[in-house]
Amino acid sequence: MPSNQTYSSYPPAIVVRQRPPTHGGERRTKRHLRARLPALILASSLACATQAVDLDAQTEQLLVDAVEAAANLDLYNARCRGDVSGRATDNLNKAMVGKLRTTVLSVQDDLFPEHSYRRVQRRLEADFIARLRDMKGCDGAKESALPDSLKEDYQEKLSAIRALP
Fold this sequence. Notes:
The chain has helices at about 25-50, 55-80, 85-100, 105-110, 115-135, 135-145, 145-160.
């Protein structure tokens, strides 16, 4: 190569070739949608069914109390026992979906005064932490009757929901 010639005067070494469009991607997309169609239909029907359930005031209050009881039990287990599984809320959610076709999150969104599950969860956690602080922390709570009362309250509310027609 001559010393006075620059690299910019050479033609590019790589030539980008365009491939003709294929229909394989389109077929994959249709197959993907067909595979997910039953799940989409089920999700939309559950959403419609959840909105269609009319609850009386007594049942609504039971649901609110049950969600609070489950949250308190899960918060105690997470703070004082190191169990962050959320088992009480999960079991309550299963019972509510089976009986009433509604979920814990929809109860928090629709029936709590905050009308936002995130704000409800923050408030419930703040209330529990204040309660725990008044009991001198986890050590004071473990020595008191709090764990047993939380379990009893939760089991009572869960049994009441399971007993609904």
